[in-house]
Amino acid sequence: NKRKATKKSEYFKHWYCQEAFIERGLMTMKPLDFHIPASQALEILQKGAFLTTQAQGKVNTMTIGWGGVSFLWRKPMFLVMVRPSRHTHGMIDAAKEFTVTLPLDDQLKEALALCGSKSGRDMDKLAAAGLTALPGQKIATPVIAGNCIQYECKVVYRQDMDQDALAAMLQHSCYASGDYHTLYYGEIVACYQTEK
Q: Which of 5, 85, 122, 196 is the most buried (most CB within 10 A)?
């Protein structure tokens, strides 16, 4: 029984690694330098991207439209913004890592809409949206499968917004309810393109 359990464990470990998806023809993966897709990130973000994190054995993703790729502290960074009211906020604080998935086509358009309007506190959004989570290469948090650019990030700095330091114009247009963002700066530890 112990031998069978070990074989089963090894099987599932193999099945859930990226190489296994590639071997079975379920996806292809092409490594990228972070600065190559950076020019596309702003355009894609405006249409929506997936911000995913994993904590205490649970995976959650949400739709984001703000953020960006930058170079800070001699490292490539992805900046994401999450309001404290969002379920993802506490999960990123616990995990100290996240992934960003930028869809390159409209195949995930409906999933983006669902993940931007529902809370992970109330449902398994990946299951509800029909999304497949692929294991990350360098971190424990998965990425979302599809024809996408993938960023894997480790949080190196977080900062709650200071409303007194924000222009009044933006306070009125973006934070009328007072629900200010927390800024997460994630060092990009892996960047690649997947195709499903």
A: 196
> What is the dihedral sign for C-alpha 77, 78, 79, 81?
negative
Distance, in Å, from the CA atom of 100 to the CA atom of 94, rounded to the nearest integer, reads 17
Task: Name which of 46, 51, 52 is nearest 66 in CA terms.
Answer: 46
pLDDT in tens, the chain (196 residues): 444 443 433 333 333 445 544 554 555 666 666 666 667 778 888 899 999 999 988 999 999 999 989 899 999 999 999 999 898 999 999 999 999 999 998 889 999 998 888 787 877 888 888 899 999 999 999 999 999 999 999 999 999 999 999 999 998 998 988 889 999 999 999 999 998 7
CA–CA separation, 101 vs 103, rounded Å?
6
Q: What is the 3-state secondary structure (H, E, C) of 31-77?
A: ECCCHHHHHHHHHHHHHCEEEEEEECCEEEEEEECCEEEEEECCEEE
How far is the C-alpha of 122 from the C-alpha of 19, rounded, in Å?
32
Q: Which of 110, 47, 117 is nearest to 87 (CA)?
A: 117
Q: What pTM, to 2 d.p., does this model score?
A: 0.81
Ramachandran region of residue 67, left (φ > 0), alpha (ψ -120 to 50) or beta? left
CA distance 138 to 131: 21
Strands (E), the chain: 28-31, 49-55, 58-64, 67-72, 75-82, 97-103, 133-134, 143-144, 148-160, 182-195
